[in-house]
Design a protein that fits this description.
Blueprint (H helix, E strand, L loop, with lengths): L1 H12 L9 E3 L9 E9 L12 E14 L4 E13 L15 E5 H5 L4 E3 L4 H9 L6
Antiparallel strand pairs: 1-6, 2-3, 2-6, 3-4, 4-5
């Protein structure tokens, strides 16, 4: 019963952006100016010399706008919303990311977290950007 109650509370805390908006699954195929959302694990901090197995202390649902994608595969994202769901077995405190903060994540690692992108109001403009040979990185 304890685990069920924890999941109910976590579901009640989830932030819904915009109410009646359409999200499309995109994997790693997002571009600059897209608004994306994904889930990522939160790991317990430990020293680099530690030989212990990493411990997951929760999950973070992040929504943000892609500001820049550099040549090395890093995506720079401005956080629009962030919610955390602590693991029921963990006592370690879990903090959400600050709204407006710019974070840097590997594009491939974001793609592992079931990425959705917000549908543009003019998808033809996005298609023109994706198809442009001048904006390839």
């Amino acid at each position: 019963m304890h685990i069920f109650v924890a999941h109910e509370r976590a579901a009640a805390r989830r932030v819904r952006i915009g109410g009646d908006v359409k999200w499309l699954s995109c994997g790693t195929e997002f571009i600059v100016a897209d608004v994306i959302r994904w889930r990522e694990p939160i790991w317990k901090p430990q020293p680099r010399s530690s030989k212990k197995k990493p411990t997951m202390i929760g999950q973070r649902a992040v929504t943000g706008q892609v500001l820049k994608i550099d040549r090395n595969g890093w995506a720079h994202i401005q956080v629009a919303a962030c919610t955390v769901e602590p693991s029921p077995r963990s006592w370690y405190p879990v903090h959400p990311l600050k709204i407006g903060e710019t974070i840097r994540r590997r594009r491939s690692k974001i793609g592992q977290g079931k990425v959705d992108r917000l549908l543009w109001s003019d998808e033809t403009a996005r298609a023109a950007i994706v198809g442009s040979r001048f904006l390839k990185s």
